[in-house]
Amino acid sequence: MNKTITALLALSTSLLVGAAPAQAAPRDPVRALKSTMAPGHGVRFTETSTWSDGLDTLQAYTNRGTLQFGKKGLAAYDIRSTSYRDAKDRAISIGKSTYYSGEYVADYLPKGKTWFRLDGGGAMPYLYGQVLNPAEPATLSALLAKGTRAGNKVTGRITFKSLAQVSPWFSGSDLKAWAADTEVSYTLTLTSAGLVGTLSSSFRAKGAKDEYATFEGDIISVETRYTGWGGKVSIKAPDPSTVTGKSSS
Q: Residue 206, Cα to own-chain centre: how many angstroms?
C-alpha cells in the first residue's frame, strides 16, 4: 500500500510540473520598436525637465510632442514647450528644416512672420528636452547594450561621444560640441509589448559652449512618458507665408 501511495504522489507531482505554463521570453525592444515604424505613424510623448545646481532643484520646462516615422526612421516632429515662466515655444521639424515659433525666436522675427526656419532637421530642438531618443533603433540598441535589465527596467550610463555615434537626434544638436566624456545616466521602463513606456535621463553640463556656458556644472534631468506607439500621426510644415529664414536683428 505504501509503495502504491508513493507512486501516485510521484505521478501527481510530475503532472503538476508538466502542466505549469512556460514563462514567456522577454520581448526584444528594438524589434518591438521597428514593428511600429511605418510611414505616417509615430508616437506621442509628454515630459518634464528640471534644473539643479546640486543644491536647489527647479522645474524648468514641460514639453509635449509627436514623433513621426518615415521610410528611413524618424521623419518629423512637433513639440510644444512651456517654461517655468509660462513662456510658450513650438518646434516643427520636417525633412532638412526645423521651424521655431514663440518666445525662443521672438526677437528674430520680422513683422508679419511667426515662424523662423533653420537648416538641419530631426535634431533635438531645445536644451531642456530628452537628450536620448528611444524612437531611433540604433540609439535604443545602444541604451540596452550599455544598461542592465531587471524585469521591465533598464538602467545605465552612456557618454556624449557614444551617443553621437548612433543618434542623429543628439549629433545634430548643440550638445554635440560639449565635452565628449559627459555621462548621461538613464532608466528605461518597458511595457508588456517591449516598447519604451517611460525614460528618465540626467547629466551634468560639461564643456558647455557659447550662450550655454552659464550651465557649466548644472544638472539637467528629464522624465518622459511615451504613448500610442505605432498610431497614425500627421505633421505638417507651417504656412510658407508665415515663415522667414532671415533674422530681423
A: 21
Is residue 169 scored above 60 in pLDDT? yes
H/E stretch holding 90: strand 88-94
How many Cβ atoms sit within 10 Å of the Cβ of residue 248? 12
Which residue stretches of 20-156 are H helix? 29-34, 137-146
User: How far, in Å, CA of 104 to CA of 5, rounded?
Assistant: 81
Range scoring the smallest mean pLDDT among 6-10, 62-66, 107-111: 6-10
**Residue positions counted in the chain:** 249
Query: Which secondary-structure segment (H or E) carries 57?
Result: strand 57-70
Rounded Cα distance, 98 and 132, in Å: 19
Mean pLDDT to the nearest integer, 15-19: 44
Q: Give the lowest-confidence range in 90-94, 144-148, 214-218.
A: 214-218
Total Cβ atoms within 10 A of residue 76: 22
Separation in Å, CA 146 to CA 84, 155, 199: 33, 8, 15
Does 109 score more than 60 pLDDT? Answer: yes
pTM of the model: 0.87
Q: How remote is the C-alpha of 226 from its chain's centroid? A: 8
Task: Assign 116 to helix, strand or coil.
Answer: strand
User: Rounded to an integer, what distance in angstroms lies between the CA atom of residue 66 and that of residue 144?
Assistant: 23
Top pLDDT among 216 and 17 is at 216
- For strands 219-232 and 41-52, give the pairing: antiparallel
- 101's enclosing H/E stretch is strand 97-102
Around 145, how many Cα atoms within 13 Å sit in the side-chain half-sphere? 11
